[in-house]
Amino acid sequence: MRLPQRFLTLHAAPVRRASSVPVVSFVPACSTADTHSLELLQDFVSRASRLFVISGAGLSTESGIPDYRSEGVGLYARTDRRPMQHAEFVRSAKSRQRYWARNFVGWPQFSSRRPNSAHEALQQWERRGKLHWLVTQNVDALHSKAGQKRLTELHGCAHRVLCLGCGAISAREELQTQFVALNPDWTAQTGGVAPDGDVFIDDDQVLNFRVPSCESCGGILKPEVTFFGDTVNKATVQFVHDRLGESDAVLVVGSSLQVYSGYRFLLAAGDRKMSVAIVNIGSTRADHLAELKVSGRCGEVLSVIQPL
Ligand SMILES: [Zn+2]
Known about the structure:
By secondary structure, the protein is of the alpha/beta class. It has helices spanning 35-47, 75-78, 86-91, 93-111, 117-127, 142-145, 172-182, 203-206, 234-245, 260-271, 298-302, and strands at 51-55, 131-136, 151-153, 156-163, 169-171, 221-225, 249-253, 275-279, 292-294.
């Protein structure tokens, strides 16, 4: 679908910068949340004593990482690109080469992104004993960078690498060093970073990019991230259901919950008749389950709510 031009306008004013290089904002256009909604949200948070929070890409847009689905500014709206499919990654050496080449180029910028005031607020809620568990669908490590401990990264983390042969986990940063050593003369022009750290470069540039295998077993290296078409580990899902069962209210922040792996916890919350509130710009798949919906930027909204 082609979007009208007015939706394609990017905001020039960045929220936070990891370096002195200006970044384009990926936060969708949105008016400031109204005072009444904020009061209701404060009430919701005050009533909860063991809050279960589920976060998504909308939380990281304020740190300069674009999401997939936001109107006008999300990756789907801006480009023809779609995220890597699990089966394609496993099946095709060429696809892996393209994926890693782009990921290599995007890594310095992607990995340097910093938590914003929404991540910081949630970390404070944890410290104050308000937040029982946080489940994130993001793979950008911004919650752990903010110091969040009671955290499940539902879709893994782009800062870790998994060997599909022996299951070894290593740091993505180490792989970057290997890439540099294997590709001393390889350069590419970047054209923007996707939610998973991917960037846009020509296929011609990809052809000469060398990708290492696992040093122990020679297996295929993959980011420790759940690609589209793959499923989340059953034990992880059960673990999160258990944390949900210990909680008394659910708050969704920055997610449209279009992906089932996150949405299922809202269905479970509905079955348990738990109170649900949502902070998001735009509609979500769980709007019918929520008693409160606040439309606004996550950082702006969460930072004015007190974890009382
Ligand atoms: Zn291995």
